[in-house]
Every structure is written in structure tokens, then in C-alpha cells.
Amino acid sequence: MSWFNKGVALDNLDRSDEAIKAYDKAIEIDPHDSDFWNNKGLSLAELGNYNAAVIAFDKVLEINPQDSQAWDNKGVALNRLGKYDEAITAYDKAIEIDPHNSLAWFNKGLSLVALKQPEEAMAAFDKAIEIDPQSSLAWYNKGNALYGLNKPDEAIKAYDKSIEINPKYPMAWNNKGAVLDKLNKHEEALKAFDKAIEIDPQNSLAWSNKRNV
Asked: Which domains occur in the chain, in start order?
């Protein structure tokens, strides 16, 4: 088994520390293989070592500047570091290379939400949905953006679409309940919170929201 394949196997076993060591051995043998650096970056991000992950993704991009997924991965690590503007720059590069990279559009939306730019975020989520209409997460986050724009009825429709795609997504039910509660639709809100709790009995936010109805 090659060192790279060993790293992949260890990653699949959630043994990221050991996986990184295997990728390092693979890199030592061939430092110009972008897959080795990319997987190392993903493992580092899994461990929360986002600064090192950015360095690994930069190495991927040094080898292959047209790797859309590596730009997206770098953006995710930067986003986790709170460097939202830099993350958006990385996502924009990913999108420039591959305009159909729905994940890059989605992740760009998340960074825009963090920067409190709901209109721009919603446009990014809409683009992600256009490319991948079955993305429950994109519909959910579009709902959050719509609520931020004080469009509660439209937000509920977006949450409903998220739930239609993935009925087991507790946060979509929770946020739908929160919006319904704001609209004084308390019985419907309680049903939504109960559904979130049924799916995830440890969902403290849903329990708290239910108590406050």
C-alpha cells in the first residue's frame, strides 16, 4: 500500500493525526503531487489546524493554480479562521475557474452572512441552488438570509424546501419554528420545535425555543 493510500485509509478511520504522517511520507517521496498536499490540508482542517491547512492548500495551488476545489478548501479554512474577506476572495477564484462549483457558491454565502451582508449572501445561495436544487443546506441558509432581510414568509418557504429535501434536518425545523413564533403562530412553532427535538433530542436550542413560546 502506498503512503497516500494509507493516509486515505487512516482518514476513513477518523485517525487524522496518523493520516497526516502518512501524507507527509508521500510528500517526501513526491512533493509535486497536489493530491498529497490537498489531503493533508483536509486532515489538518479536520483537526482544527486551519493555519497549517491554508499552507497545505497554498501548496496545492502552487502546483496547480487552476484547482477549483483547492481554492474552495482554502476558503473554508480561512472562513474558520474568521478571515471572511480572504475566504470570499478564495471562493471567487474557485468560481472563476469553475462557475458550476455549487459548494464554492454556498460557502461564499456563509462568509457573506458572517460579514452581515444578507442580500449578497442570498444571491450566492440562489446560485448554489440553481446549480444544485437538491441542496438542503443551501435552502436552509437562504432561509436564514431571507429572515435577516425581514422576509419571514419567504424564509419559511425556504425552510420548508430544505425540510422537503431532508426531513431529518433539525435546524431547518428549529429555525422555521423560530420564525413562526415571531409571526405569533405559536402552535405551528411548537410543532416545528417538537419535530426538531424528535430528530435530535439533544438539540438545546430547540428545547430553549420551545420553552420560550
From this structure: 133-213 (1.25.40.10)
